[in-house]
Amino acid sequence: VDSIVLYVCKCLPAPRQLIEHGLFPCAPVFPKLAVELDMLEFAAGLFVNLAPNETAWAATLTEFLSTRGYIFTFSDSLRRRFRNALAQYQVLMQVVEAEVSKSVEVARNLALAASVTLSAQHFKAELPTLDESTPLFDRSYLNGQSEDGHVPQLKNGEAHQRPSAYLRSRCPLCFGGRPPVPQENTPHAVVCIDANFQQKRNHDKDRRKGHEKEEGMRDPPIFSPHTVQISEANLKEWEANVDAIRNKLPSNAGSKRKAAELDVSAPDTDDKCEPGMPIPNSCADLCGESFIAADSDRVKASTAYFSDTGMMAILCRHDIVLFWANMWTAGEKQFFALALLAAIMAELPSDWTLRFLYDIACQMHRSLIKWDFLPEYLPRILFGVSVFHAYGHQWVCQLWYHPRKAGIWGLSDGEGCERFWSMLRRLIPVLRITGFHRRQYILNLQITHIHGIQLMGMAEWLQRRITKTTKRLVDAQPKLEACGHSSSFLRQQFAEQRIYQSKPITRQSKNSSIKAIEKIVALRESASAMKVAIASLESELMKYILTDSIAAKTRVLTRLQKDIDIATNHINLHDKVSATRLNEIKKQPFFALQMNMRAVKARLCTKLRERKFELANLECAYHSKQTDQKTQSHIEDAMHRHEPTITGLAKKYNSMLKQMVQLRMTDTVAANAILPPAIVLKTLFKLDVDDDTWHDVGLEDLEEFGGVLPPWLSDDTVRAGIRFNQEVLNCKGELARCHTECAAMQTWFEEEYEATSFAEQYTPGGHRHVLLIHTGIYSLPDADLKYHLQIRLWSLGALGEMWQ
Predict the structure, then answer these.
(1) Which residues pair with 316 in a beta bridge?
(2) Cα–Cα distance for residue pair 620/611, rounded to 1 Å
(3) Are 329 and 357 in contact, with CB atoms under 8 Å apart?
(4) Percent residues over pLDDT 90 in the chain
(5) 640-643 long-range contacts, Cβ below 8 Å, gap at least 24?
(6) 663 close to 593: Cβ distance less than 8 angstroms
(7) Which domain holds residue 660?
(8) Residue 657 domain-assigned (yes or no)
């Protein structure tokens, strides 16, 4: 054992002398423990690959030293002092790295500015000088809470044409290249968002005597210069704004106000597509009911036991965290997602479009339109449902929001958050009992560590994706050619399918028969008026040339008569019923029941049609690889969940049919009415087009298709071709995006290496960067800055070799 004697004075404080001996103090004044720097570096690396556990580390080391005669005089002294030393060492290393990054960013902007004379004097003038009196928390670095870290921006407009320096530092593949040329229906970037309620934190308890049941205070703040976290103040501001907007509801109480609060359509209202929404309200309501995430009032983590209930993150398609937010509410409140979405949109150029994948993207889209959230960004956001949760949505919703159907934008699945949560699962027990600030600091450390691993594996990720996509394209291309239809024809058929199947569904109404008959009366009145007008024109025909006017009126009369016939047939009135008779049968229960029965039948056929298309996807999935088994199981589960709804509609239809049979026997008006056959429940799920289920409304309702069924509904080759065409288009889009990302990766590497070389070359002499942390003041002379820049150059060289 070596003994070192330190003579401490104001000029040579103990921490400085310990650092010169390769030891790191546990406190800035009168430290009682110093740890070797190599040991701290090892522990810092260990605790980002394992769950951080200083207690186990200290207990093991204490036992190891005690067996060799080295005993600590105070209990638990090693754990507390080692933890302090490790935390301050990690902060110091991060601050040094952040200062180096700031210098490189200054060099990058100067190197890109053609009008700037490259010199050491100019570089020195542009470097941000830190004063010893500047608190650490008042400094800004390139992270999620600072747009540019106070780095001078270019004045030539290029900064507005590319994503921010922060986004480029997070993912070189998505944001590191030159502005890409957007293709048809192809967004510039793809991101996904999700919440995790496993990363909870218990309430802080006051341990003072007599205050045991009171909630304790937060632990001291820990500075994290590399944070990707949105500040709590920003989230609170979003929470207040959202509450203020949503509270502007009509004063009337009851079901309509409750529906407005839950972003669903009010009861007893006609189904329709809201402006800007591709799906009807009925479909959006059912999707919202199917997902717990759509119910912000659902308790997922009780605030009675937890101060922090979870976290929400937004990731790029390469599973890299761009921003994350700490959650403190019991449910998945929408303002967290809005804050994350606004944060990334603010970092993008004004002409960039963003594909936004979320478990409940349809509900998010609906809320943004209804409440006018993010109006400046909404036109540039394309919404999609993550693949893992798509089959929990209605079929109509999948047609518009499924990532494999909604446009041509590759094979991104939107499940990067699930993979990220898996990487953090080892932190669940530890973070449950940590302090408020330490929990967030540990999460930032883990995200930084994971980001470094992802950065090294980007080239390998691209290679795997290109290989996998090419294989899928080779498999799908011959199947598409075997269908015998062109890609443009299949895309047109799919567009027609989406439009038809997205039509609002007829809702049941107590006054449906009255409305239908009133429509006939109104049409007949219009026709009578038109006949009078035509007769008047014919009487004037001898005086004036009115042939064109008479022809126009005659065409209008023909169209009105056709509408009358269609409306009359709609309630099964095949004879010429006078207006007086129509008024008499307005309140007949038979016709009210008949109209409601048609609505039920329409819903049943729609549900069966959705099941048919989902079953086709499942049959195709059975031939896929083992890696897709999880997706297949989700398809099966979703289909089984829908079966009771379909069976219930069929039973309701048959029950209404029995009532109609009884009413026809006692009602003279409906004595000649024709009734459809009953639905056989045993053959309901065979989905045979010749089944009686389709013979009234649905697949063979020729009036809706002009007498001929469309190819997308009647031709098996067209239906199969649509699937293969979408697969081919998505594979081609994915390959194009991968090549663009490869070019972006090369551009980012060239710029990063050039900027670091420039900073290392023009680092002036005599200038000092002062780093102030909790344990004292540390200085980074230019010689040290040059050393760290050389280390970064070496790391970039190793990264380039790995990417090659």
Answers:
(1) 191
(2) 14
(3) no
(4) 31
(5) 642/607, 642/610, 642/611, 643/685
(6) yes
(7) 598-699
(8) yes
Same domain assignment for residues 77 and 200: no
Q: What are phi and psi of 108, to 5 degrees?
A: -65, -45
DSSP 273: P
State residue 695's pLDDT score: 45
Q: Are 660 and 590 in contact (CB under 8 A)?
A: yes
Centre a 10 Å sphere on the Cβ of residue 297 and count the other Cβ atoms it contains: 11
CB atoms within 10 A of CB 14: 19
User: Residue length, the chain?
Assistant: 804
Q: Distance between CA atoms of 272 and 83, rounded to whole angstroms?
A: 61
**Same domain, yes or no, for 134 and 245?**
no
Question: What single letter denotes the amino acid at residue 380?
Answer: R
Residue 693 lies in a domain: yes
Asked if residues 31 and 14 have their Cβ atoms less than 8 Å apart, the reply is yes
For the record, the structure tokens of 144 come out as: 């999620």
Structure tokens at 233: 């103040």
Most confident of the following: 157-161, 376-380, 389-393: 376-380
Residue 63 Cα distances to 1, 2, 70, 221, 529, angstroms: 18, 21, 9, 31, 103
How are beta strands 34-36 and 201-202 bridged, if at all? unpaired
Please tell me the number of Cα atoms within 13 Å of 38 on its side-chain side.
2
Q: How many angstroms separate the CA atoms of 136 and 11, rounded?
A: 23
Give the three-state DSSP class for 348: coil
Average pLDDT across the chain, whole number: 77
Strands 768-773 and 306-308: unpaired
Residue 552 included in any domain = no
Name which of 233-242, 389-398, 661-670 the model is least confident about. 661-670
What mean pLDDT do residues 365-389 have? Answer: 91
Residue 112 has pLDDT above 80, yes or no: no
Whether 182 contacts 294, CB under 8 Å: no
Distance CA 167, CA 478 (A): 40
For residue 524, being part of any structural domain is answered with: no
Report CA torsion sign: 547, 552, 556, 562: positive
What pLDDT, on the 0 to 100 scale, is given for residue 255? 47
User: Would you state the structure tokens that stand for residue 772, as one six-digit string?
Assistant: 């102030």
